[in-house]
Amino acid sequence: MQVEKKEGPSSSRDKKEVIRLSKNEYRKANKEFNGKFEQAIRAKNIEEAMKAMQERVEWNRWHEPTVLKLKKSWEKGEHISWNLFRRLMLVCTDYEKHHLYVEDLFEKMSKMYGEVVFLKNADIVKMKFIVLEKGKERIKKGMQLVSTIVGNNKLSLKRRMLEVLLGACADENDIQTAFKIRDIAIKHNCEFGGAGYVELLRVCSNCSKTDWDRGKIILQDVFSKVNVLDNYLVEAIETWCNKRSISTEKDLSADTKGRCTPSSDRKQVCKLPHFKLSQDQAKVFSEAILKHQISISSLSEAKTREAFDDFIRWLDGAKDKNKAWALIDAANCGFHGNSGNFSYKQADLVYIHFKFERNFASKLLISQSRWEAGLKMSTVNPILQYWMHEKSVFITPKGLNDDAFWMYGAIYLSTKHTLSNVFIVSNDLLRDHHLMQNYDLGFFRFMQSHIIRFRTAQEGQQTGRRNKKRKTEHKLVFYDPFPYSIQPHRTTAFNKHAIVFPYMAKSSDSSKKTEGSTDEKKDLLVKDLYKAKGDDDLPALPEVVADRVRW
C-alpha cells in the first residue's frame, strides 16, 4: 500500500481534519487492524503484514481518541504500533528474502517519526537485521549504529543490542571489536547479562591462539557481576577452560553448612565461605536507602534523616542489644495467609517466637497508620501496649516506607555485630526496592543471606478462632538462611586456587511426571531461582533454592 505522506498529529495542521472517536470506537478499530496483522503473520505473508501495519499507522494519524489517557499517548506520538512493528521485524529475520522490504520499512518509519523516536523503539530489531548480513561488514555497520546511539543524549544503549553485535564478533573471530564493545558498555553503565559474557568467552575461545589474558578478564567480569550462571554460561566457561587445559568439575551440591564434595575425591571437601559485608559497602547501601527515601518521601530531607537517626538511637538503646537480632517486618507477618487482612495477633506470635523460644532481641517495625488503627481496637490495644512497654516496637513515620527501616537497620547492625547474629523476618520478595531494582549484587546477596522466611504450618491450621473480620492467626514455621551466599567464591581447597561458580540445576521441583511420560527435565531460569512454585506469590524457601543450584 502506498502511504501518502501527511503531517503528523503533533504538527500545526488544522485539528478539524481529525475524526474524534470514543474509547470503544477507537479500540474496536484498532482491534480490527490487529486481526488483519495477526492473520498475515500466521500465513507468513510479510507483504500483507506490512500493509496492515502501515494502514493502521496512517489511520491513527487522522483519528483521535477523546479519552484523556489515550489522547495523551496519542499526542506524544506513542500511537505508533511499535509492538506490531517489532514483531513483524522479528518474524522477518527468519526470511532473508524479505530483507529489502524491511530496509525500505526502516527508512519509511525513520523519516515518518524521526530517527530518535525510531531508534528508541527499534534499535534492537535494527541490530538483528544488520547482523543477518554476511562477513565483517556487518560488524562495521553495527558499530556505526552503536556510535549513533552513544552520540545522542536522548538515546541509551541497551545490553540486548550489544549482545547481538557480540554474537557477530564471535562468529567472525573479531576479538578486538568485541573488547571495544565491552569497553563502551562499561563506560556507559550498560551491564551485560549472561548472554554477553557467553559471546565474549566464545570469541576468546574461537581465536586461533586463545587469548589467555583477555579470557581471564572476562572470567573476572563473570565472577564480580553475575550472581548465578545459566547453563549456556557454564558451557562457555567449560569450553574456554578446556582450550587451556584447566580442570573443571560440575554438579556439586552444597549442604546447609556450605560443604561441597567433588565426585572425583570424596575425601576432599570445599567449604563455601560465610557472607561478608565490608564497612564501605554498608556505608554505600545505607546512604543509598536514605537518599531514595528522601527522593520519594512527602517529608522534608531534614525530617527524613531525623527519623532514621531516631531509629538508630532506638536500636542502640535496646536493653537486649547483645543478643542475636530479629528485625520483624510486622506488616508482612501480619498479612501472611489472611487474604488481605492484617492480624496483629499473628505479628505478636512471630515476636513471641523470637523473643522467648529463640532468645533473640526481637524487634517489630510497624507503620504509624497501622499502629494508630490498632490502638482503637479493644482486643489489639493490650498487645500494642505490651510491645511499647518492652521497647520492642518502632513506629515508622507517615510518608516513609517501613521496609526501608528494617533494611537500613540490618545493615547498621551488621557493622556492630557479627553478620550471623543479624536477621530480618519477612517474606518480602524485595522486587519494589530501589537497590534491588538497580540490581546491586552486594545488597542482593546481603538480603538473601539474612532473611528468615516462614510458612503456615498446615493449610488452615489455626492457633485461635476467626474474629468478626475473618482474620486467622496461623501457626508459622520459620526457615533460616544459609550461612553462605549463592554467589561465585574463591577457594584454596585441595591446595589449589579455584573459583566455585553456582549455576542453575536441571529442574528438580517442576511438576512431577505422570506415569508413562517421557518429557525431559527443563532448565530452570535464573530469574526464577528465588521464586516459589507456580503462581505462589511468595519467595522460595532456602532448602528449595539450594536444591535448584549446583556448583
Mean pLDDT: 77
How many beta strands in the DSSP annotation?
Answer: 14
N→C terminal distance:
57 Å
Largest sheet composition = 6 strands, mixed
Protein structure class: alpha/beta
Helix content: 40-55%
* Radius of gyration, in angstroms, nearest whole number: 28 Å
- Shape, please? globular
- Strand ordering within the main sheet: 7-6-5-8-9-10
Note poorly predicted spans: 1-16, 67-80, 459-471, 508-521
Beta-strand percent range? 5-15%
Number of helices: 22
Salient structural properties:
single chain; 551 residues; alpha/beta; two-stranded parallel sheet; 22 helices; 49% helix; globular
Give a brief description:
The protein has 22 helices and 14 strands. With 551 residues, it is an alpha/beta fold.
Description of the structure:
This protein has 551 residues and is α/β, with parallel strands linked by helices. The protein is 49% helix and 9% strand. It is built from 22 helices and 14 strands. The protein has helices at residues 23-42, 46-62, 68-75, 82-92, 99-113, 115-130, 137-150, 159-171, 175-187, 194-206, 212-225, 231-243, 279-296, 301-316, 330-335, 344-357, 368-375, 381-389, 402-416, 434-437, 441-448, 542-547; strands at 19-21, 63-65, 259-260, 270-271, 325-329, 361-367, 393-396, 422-425, 451-456, 476-479, 489-491, 498-500, 503-504, 549-550. The protein has a 6-stranded mixed β-sheet with strand order 7-6-5-8-9-10, with helices on both faces. A two-stranded parallel ribbon has the order 1-2. It has a two-stranded antiparallel sheet with strand order 3-4. A hairpin with a 6-residue loop joins strand 11 and strand 12 (498-500). Helix 1 runs antiparallel to helix 2 (46-62) and helix 7 (137-150) runs antiparallel to helix 8 (159-171). The longest helix has 20 residues, at 23-42. The chain is globular. The relative contact order is 0.07.
